[in-house]
Amino acid sequence: MDNLNTHTTASLYETFPADEARRLAERLDIHYTPKHGSWLNMAEIEFSALSNQCLNRRIADAATLRTEISAWENDRNNRKTPIQWHFTTEDARIKLKKLYPNL
User: Residue 49: which of 11, 18, 75, 27 has the closest Cα?
Assistant: First the structure.
């Protein structure tokens, strides 16, 4: 789960009656993602590429949409398109300096 402020069990109690919120909260095992370089960033990059490369036009019906997305997905997977991170180790050492002790 990402770190959005509404992604907490408290938000369940704001949305549902207490009994239902408790029932839902007991079923959840929440694991938050790291704020930098997480799988969520990769998913967002892929959805952006899908939107820009495949979904940037009107598609007539759901069957055509599924066919188009499947073709895009197969092409993307076959090309093994890597994600180019712009947050380098050097950047991390500067930005995250306060998190690490001085040696």
Answer: 75
Query: How far is Cα 43 from Cα 47, in angstroms, rounded to an integer?
Result: 6
Query: Do 102 and 84 meet the contact criterion of CB atoms below 8 Å apart?
Result: no
CA distance 78 to 71: 11
Global model pTM greater than 0.85: no
User: Angle 11-51-68 (CA atoms, 0-180°, nearest 5)?
Assistant: 120
Q: Is-contact 3 30, C-beta < 8 A?
A: no
Structure tokens at 72: 């895009």
**pLDDT tens sequence across 36-94:** 666 777 888 889 999 999 999 999 999 999 999 999 999 999 998 787 777 777 887 78
Q: In angstroms, rounded to a whole number, what is the distance separating the alpha carbons of residues 36 and 29?
A: 21
Task: Name the token pair of 46.
Answer: 């892929």
For residues 76 and 71, what is the distance between their CA atoms, to the nearest angstrom? 9
